[in-house]
Amino acid sequence: MKIETLRDQLRQPGARFGVGVWLMPIKYLGQEETIAVRLDVQALDARQVYLESLPAGARFSGLTAPEGHQNLTRLMWNLSQRIHRRDCLLIHTLDLLLLALEVNERERFWHETLRGLPYPRTKLILGVPEKAPELFSYELRRCYASLIAEGFLE
């Protein structure tokens, strides 16, 4: 599916699912702000927001702890329940946070995020590099095919 189709699908009134994944072309990495403007969504740096959410003086991210995926899932839930400048966010740099999780924790994050955030106030497009099967496996691609966009902007 094209990214524009996913965005429109997420924005449908009454849509149960409000989170999708865009397997972003490598050439778009670092250009998320510009891409967000073209998509009429708001870009949000997941890494920056996560670091700001840590307690003052925290020395560790909490992502490598058992159940570390819950910290990222909670972040996605919080973002989906807040009101932002736009009704849809393009979440980028998520790959940097996902790399800190163990493989099984990544899988849990994806399942809980893609299944467990129904009817959010703000829709989320989670951008991950297209050539990173260690972050979003082929099994996940099959399981959540209706929530995944691939390819370039129209």
What report would you give on this structure?
With 154 residues, the chain is α/β, with parallel strands linked by helices. It has one domain: Rossmann fold, CATH 3.40.50. It has seven helices and five strands. The chain has helices at residues 3-11, 32-39, 46-53, 69-81, 94-98, 103-116, 138-143, and strands at 19-24, 42-45, 88-92, 123-129, 148-150. A five-stranded parallel beta sheet has the order 2-3-4-1-5, with helices on both faces. It is globular, with a radius of gyration of 14 Å.
Tags for this model:
154 residues, alpha/beta, Rossmann fold, five-stranded parallel sheet, 5 strands, globular
In short:
The protein is of the alpha/beta class.
List the helices and strands and how they pair.
Layout: H1 3-11, E1 19-24, H2 32-39, E2 42-45, H3 46-53, H4 69-81, E3 88-92, H5 94-98, H6 103-116, E4 123-129, H7 138-143, E5 148-150
Parallel strand pairs: 1-4, 1-5, 2-3, 3-4
Helix pairs in contact: 4-6
